[in-house]
Amino acid sequence: MPSLLRGAGFITGAASGRLTNPHQGIGKATAFSFAKHGVTQLALADINLSAAETTAREIQSRFPGTEVLPLALDVANEESVSDAVTQTVRQFGRIDYAVNNAGIAGPGALSAEHNVDDWKRTIDVNLHGVWLSSRAQIGVMLGQERREDSPRHNRGIIINVASMYGLLAPSLNTPAVAYAASKHGVLGLTRADAVAYAPKGIRINAICPGYVQTPLVQSSMHTGVIQREVDKIPAGRLASMEEIADHITFLASPLSSYMVGAAMVADG
């Protein structure tokens, strides 16, 4: 059976990262899913280089034929983003799949309770960081040839990790106005770029996870707040990180080749 994916991948927030990242673990699970489904070159970019190096060793142990490049990356820093993308292209020659997963939860606060610094930091990482990353990735993809050995011959594919809170308001049990605003922005960015670059062979979509069994969510379970939100989910449970990674792999694959600018919801 032919591989679902081929070529080189670039994932931000790709390791264990920090407990402040609500997507912590999704990037790592995506890296394993990509390797499982045929990606033979992987750049794992994370603010925690040590964790990225550990993840790289784990992937190479499980998938010996995979070339893995761990990178230090602060997505809110333009130079850091440029360096990480440049190193990836220098090592692999191209980027076929990019997943912009790095993010922070920000404070659990309503607007009247928010301070300006926390607001700016959340927007800086979650929205500005995705834009910096996707801008650099698009620049690379525009300059590379379409993969003739890949079904439907894309020049490159980008998946931005948004949130269900990019589509609706957070529950008052879990206020997160800056986080919600940043994820709404990610969807706007995704749609605008998708329309602009689809004619050039670059396919861009977003995934909007609901509550996922990440370390950050698990660390909050004892308060009972998250459980009240889980009780509202028809599936009756949190998503696993591997489930979200599989959805991201679907968006990267030819199985979703006619999806452009989509906000794929995975909320149970």
UniProtKB/TrEMBL annotation:
Q: What is this protein called?
A: Uncharacterized protein
Q: Which family does it belong to?
A: Belongs to the short-chain dehydrogenases/reductases (SDR) family.
The answer on whether this UniProt entry bears the keyword NADP reads yes
Q: Which Pfam families match?
A: adh_short_C2
InterPro entries annotated for this entry? NAD(P)-bd_dom_sf, SDR_fam
Q: Which UniProt keywords apply?
A: NADP, Oxidoreductase
- Highest taxon of the lineage: Eukaryota
Which molecular function terms from Gene Ontology are attached?
oxidoreductase activity, acting on the CH-OH group of donors, NAD or NADP as acceptor
